[in-house]
Amino acid sequence: MLIGVPKEIKNHEYRIGLTPAGARELTAAGHQVVIQRDGGAAIGLTDDLYEKCGAQIIDTAEEIFAKAEMIIKVKEPQPNECAMLREGQLLYTYLHLAPDPEQTAALVKSGCTAIAYETVTDKKGGLPLLAPMSEVAGRMSIQAGAHALERAQGGIGVLLGGVPGVKPAQVLVIGGGVVGINAARMAMGMNANVTILDRSLERLKYLDELYGDRLNTIYSTREAIEEALPEVDLIIGAVLIPGAAAPKLVTRQDLSMMRQGTVLVDVAIDQGGCFETSKATTHQHPTYEVDGVIHYCVANMPGGVARTSTFALTNATLPFALQLARKGAKQAMLDDPHLLNGLNVHAGKITYEAVARDLGYDYVPAAQALAG
What we know:
Layout: E1 2-5, H1 20-28, E2 32-36, H2 47-52, E3 56-58, H3 61-67, E4 70-72, H4 79-82, E5 90-93, H5 101-110, E6 113-116, H6 131-148, E7 170-174, H7 178-189, E8 193-198, H8 201-211, E9 215-219, H9 222-228, E10 234-237, E11 263-266, E12 287-290, E13 293-296, H10 306-327, H11 329-335, H12 337-340, E14 343-346, E15 349-350, H13 353-359, H14 366-371
Parallel strand pairs: 1-2, 1-4, 2-3, 4-5, 5-6, 7-8, 7-10, 8-9, 10-11, 11-13
Antiparallel strand pairs: 6-14, 12-13, 14-15
């Protein structure tokens, strides 16, 4: 199979979908790999490294999209990239379609087969291709939130860990999944006072056993959120419904309950955000203010630590890429139900139920779409 890796073009996105080590694995298995020139240069993955691993360097994305049977990316294709996709071509990347009707329509129109990293599953019911970036984003959320709390950044001027004689910041993490746990760990490590909300009693019990009295665990209800809002300095939105739009857990009206300079970090922004006032931002302009509350809603947070993120992501995505290249997309998905769960679009059909429901498309089960 001919595999193409274009350079990412989203604002301040320096990750790349394949490392030189990944290119070596694919070429050793008999496949061709083409990489766009300087695709990984910003994070030290030079063209020379790729060529030494058997990849060919190509100047433009247009050439790559025209030649490749499988496109491996990191972020969702931008409008000009969607326009270059063609019928029967395989796209393997993050998609986050539920809050993005324009991208969804473009992928449907293209006729391509689109596998979303964020909906591929594993035997334990986890999301193995989303987890590495969730770990990064969870840890970064505290780093970003601590910076946004500085008065010069619009925050209330609180040091996350406090100092002797001055109490630390109050941090509220909504959601106890991979993002939430990593955010809580970082905040606790910086000596903040941390509370985590979740609706899974099993998860809350696990967190209590793991961290004891270092972490406050509370069952998530509307009342619990409202009670916390006037007291907190930093809120991390870490909720996820796989493939679907995130629920709005903090409303515009709720902002009036918070102190001026409180900071919201919405890690769910790729799925539309879990705060009603959230809108996607970039690393170039990461924050904005609504009613005195600072919002950090960068849609590609892990891109800020692009080298770490690239290696963490490709460690997880490469085994599936090898399967897809060796067997072809259809057979690889039919042989692996967890990879099949990653199929969101195929030949003009929406094959992921939550996306179809949220955007008003007819839902065609993935196996049925592949058989058609």
